[in-house]
# Entry
Amino acid sequence: MEGRRIVRVAFQQADGKVKLRPAVVLKKLAPYEDLLVCAISSITHLFIPDLDLVIDKDHAEFGSMGLGFPALIRSSFLTTVSISAIQDPIGSISADTLEQLLSNLAKYLSPR
Amino acid sequence: MKQVILDTAQARTPQEVYQLVEREGLQAGDSLKVVQKPVLDKQTAATAFLIVLVAVLWYMNAKAKREKEQFASDLLDDLFKKYNSAEELERELQQEFNVAVTTEIVEDSWASDSMRTFERAAYAEDEPDISHIEVKEPNPHYRPWKEGA
# Structure
């Protein structure tokens, strides 16, 4: 499971039910096959300038994302998940977009 | 008689297993509960369980004989020559030392709680359903949660 993939993460709820939520894989983490992912939500109005990315219908990668709805890649919502919680890739972003995400995050986190 | 709990997430090697049961003072007549996290796949869990049993059996034998030499060679001999299954090891522990072994798969509640908190924070309650989206490349490592588990 490489970086750039759009995946469905299975989040188990307290009642035992499962919610599938989209996320983008930023990096595979050693030594186990854990993945650093960031959340992708449909709530695009929560966009944080210079950090998040909105992939709407006019965006060149709207189709390749595979979601079918305008999405907000929430760079500040990062988590590490086991590969066993990743159902499958449903799409991807380009290397340039991944680079932009990582760059935004690095700039955001760097001391000013 | 006491119960010694051995968490395979804490004791990952035969040496760590040995140190743990030695520290806990496992002795004849005690019971041993082997706790494993559900993140392990079946084969890994079975292997980890086998290593635990071999290490514990070696510890009990060494304790009985007051010997601590040749740990590595004895362990490897046991793993690859003497025993064919975990059941044989469990039986020997029970018959020779009256140590009963039980296993338990425990949910890592901290990790689960953390994931649920993340899901609530990062996503809206009414996010679009994505369960119907076509699979591009199945993940062979995916382990579905069991509903109600």
